[in-house]
Design a protein that fits this description.
CATH superfamily of the largest domain: Enolase-like C-terminal domain
Keywords: Aromatic hydrocarbons catabolism, Isomerase, Manganese, Metal-binding
Number of helices: 13
Number of domains: 2
GO biological process, one term: amino acid catabolic process
Bound molecules: [(2S)-5-oxo-2,5-dihydrofuran-2-yl]acetic acid, magnesium ion
Structural class: alpha/beta
Number of strands: 13
Distance between the termini: 39 Å
Pfam family, one: MR_MLE_N
Helix content: 25-40%
Family: Belongs to the mandelate racemase/muconate lactonizing enzyme family.
Largest sheet: 7 strands, parallel
Radius of gyration: 20 Å
Low-confidence stretches: none
CATH class of the largest domain: Alpha Beta
Order of helices and strands: EEEHHHHEEHEHEHEHEHEHHEHEEH
Protein name: Muconate cycloisomerase I
CATH topology of the largest domain: TIM Barrel
CATH architecture of the largest domain: Alpha-Beta Barrel
Length: about 375
C-alpha cells in the first residue's frame, strides 16, 4: 500500500438544538456546540472526528472557538504532509508542539483513526486491538430541573426500553432541596432503575461527607465528582467514608491525573472520556491505569454528537470490564443529526456496527445548515 499523506485538517463549528434545556450545576444548555474535524488524505480518504465540550468555557479549559483557532493555527499546519497512517507519529508531534488541548487532540486522533479504518476496511475498535462486545449499556441524564418531569422522563425511558440507569445532575440548589429531589426520584423508580448523581464539584467536603451518607443510605448507587478536582485530600477521605462509591470525572484532565488519583486512592470508579485524555487511544491508557489499580470503569461523555459518541464507543467496546456501563447518549439529547445514519439505541444499549472506521458518513446538507458562519 502506498503511503497516504495528510493534506488538509478542517475544524467546523456546528450549533445544534437540544430536546429540552439540560441543567448542570455550572451551566444550563439550551443547545450543544460540536467541533467537527475533517482530515483529507492524499489517497482520497477523509477521516472525521469531533471535539466537543459543554457550556463554552464553563466545563473545561477549551471552548469550541479556542479549539477551532488552535487547530487552524497550530495543530493543522503541524500535521499537513505527515503520514496519515502513522497515528503514533502524528499524536507525538502534536504533544510536542502543544501542551494540553486534549479536547482538540481527541477530535484529531478520532479523525485519523476513522481515516485509517476506512483505508484498511476495519472498524476503529479493531484498530484499537479488537472489540470484546458489540453494544454498550447507556445511562440517561435527568436534568430538566423539575422532579416530577424527571420522574415522567425516566418512566418513559423504562417503558420504551431505552435506559434503566439514570444520572441526576445536582449541586446548584441548596443541599437539602437537592437531596429531596434525588430521594423522590429513587423512591418513584425503586429497584426498576439504578439512580446515580453527578455534583460537578459543587459541594465542599463538609457537605459531601453528610450528603454521600444520606444518598448512600437511600439507595443511590454512585456519586460522581462531589467536590472540587483540586481538593485531593478531601477526595481521598470521601472515598474512604462514603457508603456509595465515588467516581472521578473532572479530577481527570489527563492520563497523568488518572495515575496520581489511582496512586492516592482518591476514587473507586473513573469516568473515561476521550476529550479529557486526548482521544480514543489516549483514553485507553487511563483505562489501563485504572485496571491495574483495581479501579472500576465507566464510559463517560462530554455530550458529543454522533461522531464523538461513536469514537468513544469504539474505544469502550475494547474494554473487558466496564462495570458501570456508559452514558453515551449525547445524540439523543439533540433534535438534529449531521450524519446520514444515526447511531442505533435499543434494549438499553448502543449498538455499534462493524463498518470500517467510525462507521459514519457526514450529511453534507445538515452540516451546511447548522455550521456556524
Ligand atoms: C458530566 O459532568 O459528566 C455527562 C452527562 C451529562 O448530562 O453531562 C455530562 C457531563
Ligand atoms: Mg460528570
Amino acid at each position: 500500500m502506498t503511503q497516504a499523506l495528510i493534506e488538509r485538517v478542517q475544524a467546523v463549528i456546528v450549533d445544534l438544538p437540544t430536546i429540552r434545556p439540560h441543567k448542570l450545576a455550572m451551566h444550563t444548555m439550551q443547545r450543544q456546540t460540536l467541533v467537527i474535524l475533517r482530515i483529507t488524505c492524499s489517497d482520497g480518504v477523509e477521516g472525521i472526528g469531533e471535539a466537543t465540550t459543554i457550556g463554552g468555557l464553563a466545563y473545561g479549559n477549551e471552548s469550541p472557538e479556542s479549539m477551532k483557532t488552535n487547530i487552524d493555527i497550530h495543530l493543522a499546519p503541524a500535521l499537513v504532509g505527515m503520514d496519515a497512517g502513522n497515528i503514533n507519529a502524528a499524536m507525538l508531534k502534536l504533544d510536542k508542539i502543544a501542551k494540553g488541548n486534549t479536547f482538540a487532540k481527541s477530535g484529531i486522533e478520532s479523525a485519523l483513526l476513522d481515516a485509517q479504518g476506512k483505508r484498511l476496511g476495519l472498524p476503529v475498535s479493531e484498530l484499537l486491538g479488537g472489540r470484546v462486545r458489540d453494544s454498550l449499556e447507556v445511562a440517561w441524564t435527568l436534568a430538566s430541573g423539575n422532579t416530577a418531569q424527571d420522574i415522567a422522563e425516566a418512566e418513559q425511558m423504562l417503558e420504551i426500553r431505552r435506559h434503566r440507569v439514570f444520572k441526576l445532575k445536582i449541586g446548584a440548589n441548596p443541599l437539602e432541596q437537592d437531596l429531596r429531589h434525588v430521594i423522590a426520584i429513587k423512591r418513584a423508580l425503586g429497584d426498576r432503575a439504578s439512580v446515580r448523581v453527578d455534583v460537578n464539584q459543587y459541594w465542599d467536603e463538609s457537605q459531601a461527607l453528610y450528603a454521600c451518607r444520606v444518598l448512600g443510605e437511600n439507595g443511590v448507587d454512585l456519586i460522581e465528582q462531589p467536590i472540587a478536582r483540586t481538593n485531593r485530600g478531601g477526595q481521598v477521605r470521601l472515598n474512604q467514608r462514603s457508603p456509595a462509591p465515588i467516581m472521578a470525572d473532572e479530577s481527570i484532565e489527563s492520563v497523568e491525573d488518572a495515575f496520581s488519583l489511582a496512586a492516592d486512592g482518591a476514587a473507586s470508579i473513573f469516568a473515561l472520556k476521550i476529550a479529557k485524555n486526548g482521544g480514543p487511544r489516549a483514553v485507553l491508557r487511563t483505562a489501563h491505569i485504572a485496571q491495574a489499580a483495581g479501579i472500576a470503569l465507566y464510559g463517560g461523555t462530554m455530550l458529543e454528537g454522533s461522531v464523538g459518541t461513536l469514537a468513544s464507543a469504539h474505544a469502550f467496546l475494547t474494554l473487558n470490564q466496564l462495570t458501570w456501563g456508559t452514558e453515551l447518549f449525547g445524540p439523543l439529547l439533540l433534535t438534529e443529526e449531521i450524519v446520514t445514519q444515526a447511531p442505533e439505541y435499543r434494549d438499553f444499549q448502543l449498538h455499534v456496527p462493524r463498518t470500517p472506521g467510525l462507521g459514519l458518513r457526514l450529511d453534507e446538507q445538515q452540516l451546511a445548515r447548522f455550521a456556524r458562519r
